[in-house]
Design a protein that fits this description.
heterotrimer, A mainly alpha, B alpha+beta, C mainly alpha, A: mainly alpha, Four Helix Bundle (Hemerythrin (Met), subunit A), 6 helices, about 0% strand, elongated, disordered N terminus, C: mainly alpha, Cytochrome C Oxidase, Chain A
């Protein structure tokens, strides 16, 4: 059944131009889906164990609303969005500024978390092994913080590349993929905030 | 039964059609060139074999739900007996709370008369890992999970010995955590209860070996794990031995309760049930003899 | 629109000069080509299949007679844990994603996967996981006692896995090995989904993709949502074991049942991840050997996607005996029974594909036919088990073991064998031996039925699973013996298979680019395909582009 050349006959209807979604965006969405599932399980464990600790400090006693950190983190979504749209318009300076802002806000968030944990450990003696609240709190918030660290690291790399002039308009989509990750991290924080600091207290 | 007949019917029909198709439509040597008619689908046929299975599923689901409710949501008769079952690695603890009886590994229950039911309600939990209580001829299984209370009931109507074993992997000797349920007539059961409520007889004056055995026992580490009611032994980690000699088996079922086996068990449990949590006490022969003599008096 | 597809069959077997071995090794170790990576997955999985199979044979010898002393309880417990863990994570996942890796780009007319380096990374991290799992043999008591190999069962229920009940590192090997394998699976799944969405050739609408591709995409989608819960649970377990956490610590108020929920939220969809690619193989092979298009393509797609979604809601049918209460039990009975509807639709569609066709009994088809009968039985015993009261008797018994092996071996492995015989010519350029294939088929099928048909009986007679021995006098002895004999037949079948694989590579008949007269794009490339797959990106107008070419008078797109 060998044919050397052949043509597949033309369809009766004209097929629309063939355009497929971008690989980076689809790939990142898949990653976000998988990561959401991991977070969901930690959130479920947290909710399941609310009120079930046999002893030790309880959320209402030790948790304060992390207002500053939350404002910083949520604003950082705007700065990273600004960075991406600036790059789309070939505004490298604007992009750099946006990235720098995002890195700064992310770093502030991490610092507020670190301070909160220091306070919990040294003033209340709450550690991961103290009780169910300690275990679920530190793992959930810690998992989120780890993702923030990864995000800040990648954004810093992007910032460094931008500062050294290596970032061009053609990289806008790659930056958008990174920003999607950052928006995801923000979204997770909204859920963690509601579950831990609002519902759980 | 309904489930079985439906699945059997489905199997016969589908497998039958499959077999038919394979024979009827196989390639004959004569027609190797032609391609058969290409049929891409048929809405009516596909609809029917979607709707019919849905109906079968609904039917099965409703009948299953009925049985679930009959079993799990059945009202508890007033004559029911309550027994607490606690699973351990690798033995069963039974506490008849209302009757003041604590025993191990061999569960005695009264038979039940359908006219005036006296089922046994088992309240189950575990002291360590997950276990599962499964005596097939009495009921389905229910898991024993630490920090959780599960309840099931059994309703034997014929006296006899019902065998089972732990059905949830719980560690090295999961395989030898056997179940023995003795369903007895109400009279026999009452007699058994009466005997089990008594503390261990302290009068061993007629039996020098046993008396010496009791002394050795009470001065060794045995008392840290085992209870013998009415003595200094109040350990809760291992099975209650107050009426050890009234049991048919030891080691949670796999070993017959004879003096030779008992002696061997005490000398080195690991030789008979490798991985069991009872350590060898490294007793000398004389101590082993007298302790065995003592334990065989515990009816 | 003029299309530029040039169907040039390059049939010559290129003479490859012998290259220095180190060069060849370097090429394979550093490759990012989806075909090579796919092959590495497959070979790696076959090695573990043999090892896992040997573990099973040792277990069957131990259980052949009551109160046997062939192995100690400690060794036996490690054997069943390793057997299960190996077969699921280091045979099933790699081999099916290996086939997916190889075939998906070819079937959609692409040149490679979307992220070739991620692809390579996924393979190597999975491979490391497998290595780590088997490295555990060297820990603890040492090799003859199976060292530190995990002994907590492949589902590792809490609190048996807590540090207090499992001191030592066996549980940790289990956790880490699977964690790594999970990362690899997620990466591959990401690649498959992205490749399918973003790299199809012109004209290859989603509704024109081969069903195998659809099933790989659905399976990959399930991976995202199902493997992550296991990863999360394992992180929690490790926190419990090493940081003093209390997730599953019942002494501190933790819940053993929570582990079960998390595990089975992974565990049940996992078996669908394994079975959907097997469906995909059958979907490709049955039409070709019945000489008919698949019956009801849209329904097949809908059923596959439906199975994917419903599979996420049935997990607690593994937990009917845990005491969830009538409401919980009833819900999961319902969801499990519902999944039988799309599954049944698939079986009926396969039957309808055969009906009126011209069935050719070559070895790939023989395996697919065995698949149909065996999967039917497996599904029906599954329906039996979905009825909770039935389940209360039969869960954790050999009936369940028989049921799931019926699916895993009777359906998945059987379809896999079919896939091997079918695509081997494409991968190597040579046909596998038909007569050796028939020996393989009959030996394996007879062995399979001896083992797994009869295995249902001890379960019905009350024999629980995971016991290293059993008392005489329960009526289980003869059945266990027959089961063991069946295992030996299966070993013989596998030996034939491996011999066939190796021998055909050197002595098999040259295949050409399309030995089966098939219709999907992979058959339009030379055998084996060059690194770039397609010289010119194809353009397609129907589900069976090669059918259109071979039958210009009766093209598919007139009917679709």
């Amino acid at each position: 059944m060998m044919q050397t050349t052949s043509t597949i006959p033309i369809d009766a209807q004209v097929e629309p131009p063939w355009k497929l979604p971008s690989r980076g965006i689809v790939g990142m969405m898949c990653l976000i889906l998988a990561e959401s599932a991991i977070f969901l399980i930690f959130v479920v464990a947290y909710i399941y164990y609310i009120g079930k600790s046999l002893s030790g400090p309880l959320p209402a006693q030790v948790l304060d609303l992390p207002i500053l950190g939350t404002i910083c983190l949520l604003s950082s979504s705007f700065t990273v969005h600004h960075a991406v749209s600036a790059l789309r318009k070939n505004n490298i300076g604007g992009c750099t500024l946006g990235l720098a802002g995002t890195v700064l806000l992310g770093a502030i968030f991490l610092m507020t978390t670190a301070r909160e944990w220091y306070h919990l450990i040294h003033d209340f003696g709450l550690t991961i092994r103290t009780n169910l609240f300690g275990t679920t709190f530190y793992s959930l918030v810690g998992l989120h913080a780890t993702h923030v660290v990864i995000g800040v690291t990648m954004l810093t790399v992007a910032l460094a590349l931008s500062l050294s002039g290596r970032v061009k308009e053609t990289h806008a989509e790659r930056l958008e993929v990174l920003s999607l990750y950052w928006h995801f991290v923000d979204g997770v924080w909204v859920v963690v905030f509601l579950v831990v600091y609002v519902l759980g207290r | 039964m309904l489930v079985l007949s439906i699945t059997l019917a489905i199997f016969l029909i589908v497998a039958g059609l499959l077999l038919y198709a394979l024979i009827r439509f196989r390639q004959r040597p004569a027609d190797s060139k032609r391609e058969p008619a290409q049929i891409y689908g048929s809405n009516q046929i596909e609809l029917s074999w979607t709707v019919i299975p849905i109906l079968i599923v609904v039917m099965l689901f409703l009948s299953t739900t009925r049985i679930i409710l009959e079993t799990e949501a059945a009202p508890k008769p007033s004559g029911a007996l309550d027994v607490t079952v606690i699973g351990h690695q690798f033995w069963w603890e039974y506490r008849y709370a209302g009757l003041g009886v604590v025993t191990a590994n061999e569960l005695h229950v009264p038979i039940s008369d359908p006219a005036k039911p006296t089922p046994t309600y088992l309240e189950m939990s575990s002291a360590d890992t997950d276990h599962s209580f499964w005596v097939p001829r009495l009921a389905g299984k229910m898991d024993l999970i630490p920090n959780r209370l599960n309840t099931m009931w059994i309703d034997p109507q014929t006296p006899g010995l019902y065998l089972g074993q732990c059905a949830q992997y719980c560690g090295v000797q999961h395989a030898k955590m056997l179940l023995r349920v003795y369903a007895q007539s109400p009279e026999d059961f009452a007699a058994w209860i009466k005997q089990q409520r008594q503390s261990a007889s302290q009068d061993l004056s007629g039996n020098a070996a046993a008396a010496e055995g009791q002394t050795v026992f009470m001065h060794s580490a045995c008392i840290n794990c085992h209870t013998i009611a009415g003595t200094a032994a109040t350990g809760r980690f291992g099975p209650d031995l107050t009426h050890l000699a009234s049991r048919d088996t030891i080691a949670a079922g796999p070993v017959q309760n004879t003096p030779e086996n008992l002696r061997k068990w005490i000398a080195d449990p690991n030789s008979m049930k490798p991985g069991v949590l009872m350590p060898s006490m490294h007793l000398n022969d004389h101590d082993l003899d007298v302790i065995t003599a003592y334990l065989t008096t515990l009816h | 629109m003029a299309n530029g597809t040039v169907l040039e069959a390059v049939d010559q077997t290129l003479e490859v000069k012998r290259r220095p071995p180190l060069d060849v090794v370097y090429e394979w170790v550093s490759t990012v080509d989806h075909k090579k990576i796919g092959l590495m997955y497959i070979v790696y999985a076959l090695i573990f299949l043999v090892i896992g199979g040997l573990e099973a044979v040792v277990m069957r010898i131990q259980l052949a007679v009551p109160n046997n002393h062939f192995v100690s309880p400690q060794v036996f417990n490690r054997l069943f844990t390793m057997h299960g863990t190996t077969m699921v994570f280091f045979v099933g996942m790699p081999i099916l994603f290996g086939f997916g890796n190889y075939l998906v780009p070819l079937m959609i007319g692409a040149r490679d996967m979307a992220f070739p380096r991620l692809n390579a990374f996924s393979f190597w991290i999975s491979a490391f996981g497998g290595f780590l799992l088997y490295f555990s043999y060297l820990g603890g008591d040492g090799l003859y006692g199976m060292g530190s190999a995990p002994d907590v069962g492949w589902f590792a229920y809490a609190p048996l896995t807590a540090k207090v009940f499992s001191p030592g590192h066996s549980t940790d090997y289990w956790t880490l090995a699977i964690l790594l394998s999970g990362i690899g699976s997620t990466g591959t799944a990401l690649n498959i989904v992205t490749t399918t969405i973003c790299m199809r050739c012109k004209g290859m609408k989603l509704s024109r993709m081969p069903l195998f591709v659809w099933l790989m995409v659905v399976a990959s989608g399930i991976v995202f949502v199902a493997v992550s819960p296991l990863t999360a649970a394992q992180i929690m377990l490790t926190i419990d074991r090493y940081l003093g956490g209390h997730f599953f610590d019942t002494q501190a108020g933790g819940s053993a049942v929570l582990w079960m929920h998390f595990f089975w939220i992974f565990g049940h969809p996992e078996v669908y991840i394994l079975v959907l690619p097997a469906f995909g193989f059958v979907n490709e092979i049955i039409p070709v050997f019945s000489r008919k298009a698949v019956f009801g393509y849209p329904a097949m797609v809908a059923a596959s996607v439906g199975i994917g979604f419903i599979s996420l809601s049935v997990w607690a049918h593994h937990m009917f005996t845990v005491g969830m209460g009538p409401a919980g039990n009833t819900f999961f009975v319902f969801a499990t029974m519902v999944i039988s509807v799309p599954t049944g639709i698939k079986i009926f569609n396969w039957l309808a594909t055969l009906w009126g066709g011209k069935i050719i009994f070559k070895v790939p088809m023989m395996f697919c036919i065995a698949f149909l009968f065996q999967f039917l039985v497996a599904g029906l015993t599954g329906i039996m088990l979905s009825a909770a009261p039935f389940n209360w008797q039969l869960s954790a018994s050999y009936f369940v073991v028989a049921h799931f092996h019926y699916v895993l071996v009777g359906a998945i492995v059987t379809a896999l064998f079919g896939a091997f015989y079918y695509w081997y010519p494409k991968v190597t350029g040579r046909m596998m031996s038909e007569s050796l294939g028939k020996w393989h088929f009959w030996l394996f099928i007879i062995g399979f039925h001896l083992t797994f048909d009869f295995m249902h009986v001890p379960g019905l007679l009350g024999m629980p699973r995971r016991i290293y021995t059993y008392e005489a006098g329960r009526g289980w002895e003869w059945w266990n013996l027959i089961v063991g004999i069946g295992a030996l037949f299966q070993v013989a079948g596998i030996l034939c298979f491996v011999y066939n694989l190796v021998r055909s590579y050197f002595r098999g008949e040259i295949a050409g680019h399309d030995p089966w007269d098939a219709w999907t794009l992979e058959w339009a490339t030379p055998s084996p395909p060059p690194a770039y797959n397609f010289a010119v990106e194809p353009t397609v107008s129907s589900r069976r582009p090669l059918w259109d070419l071979k039958h210009p008078e009766d093209q598919d797109f007139n009917y679709e």
